[in-house]
C-alpha cells in the first residue's frame, strides 16, 4: 500500500526522469546524435567529429526538456557489443534507433537488428524514434523510404508510438524535433508511466 502511495506521489510531484536507449549499427551516427543532443539542450560544445571514436562502453547524456529529464544511453553498436544492449532493456522508457540512410549495403542488417529489438518482450510498447541519419550524404534514403523499407507503419490498435525523421547529425539537423517528440510521447506512454511508478 505504502509503495503504491509513494509511486503515486512521485508520479504527481517529482520531475519525471526517462531513460532512452540509443541503438543502431556501428557507424550510423549514434554518438554524433548524442553530442548534438547535449549541445542543443545543455549548450555544451559538441566534440569535433574527429574526436568521436567508436563506442566501446557507454556514453551518457542527461538533458532537461520542458520539465522532464531525459537520460540518453549511447551503447556501442558493433556486432560484438550488441549482446550488451539487453542489460538496458528493463530500464529503458524509450528507444532511439539511428540508421545510416546512405549505407544501403547495410540496410538489411539494420532492419534485422530493429526487428529483433521490436520483437523483444522486454521492450513491448516502447516509444520508438527512428533517425534516418546522414541526409546530407549522396544517395541517402528519405525518411519515407526508410519507413517503407523497414516496414515502420504504425499498426492500427498498436500501443507502440513510432516516429521516423530525417537527420543530419553532424549539422544538428532534425535532432531537436525528434527529441521533443520523444519527451512529449514519454510523458503519456503507458510503459513509461508503469516504469516510473513500478
Ligand atoms: P556510431 O556512434 O553510431 O558508431 P558515430 O557513429 O557518431 O561515431 O559516427 C560515425 C561516422 O559517421 C563519423 O565519421 C561521423 O562524423 C559520421 N556521421 C555522423 N552523422 C553524420 C551525418 O549526419 N552525415 C555525415 N555525412 N556523416 C555523419 P568519421 O569519419 O569521423 O568516422
Ligand atoms: Mg558511437
From TrEMBL:
Domain of life of the source: Eukaryota
SUPFAM superfamilies reported for this sequence: P-loop containing nucleoside triphosphate hydrolases
Keyword flag Protease: no
GO BP terms: Golgi to plasma membrane protein transport; intracellular protein transport; protein localization to Golgi apparatus
Residues binding GTP, per UniProt: 24-31, 77, 133-136
GO molecular function: GTP binding; GTPase activity; metal ion binding
Residues at which Mg(2+) binds: 31, 55
Keywords, ordered alphabetically: GTP-binding, Magnesium, Metal-binding, Nucleotide-binding
Key word Signal present: no
A GO CC annotation given for this chain: Golgi apparatus
Alphabetized Pfam families for the sequence: Arf (PF00025)
Family stated for the protein in its record: Belongs to the small GTPase superfamily. Arf family.
Protein name: 1-family small gtpase
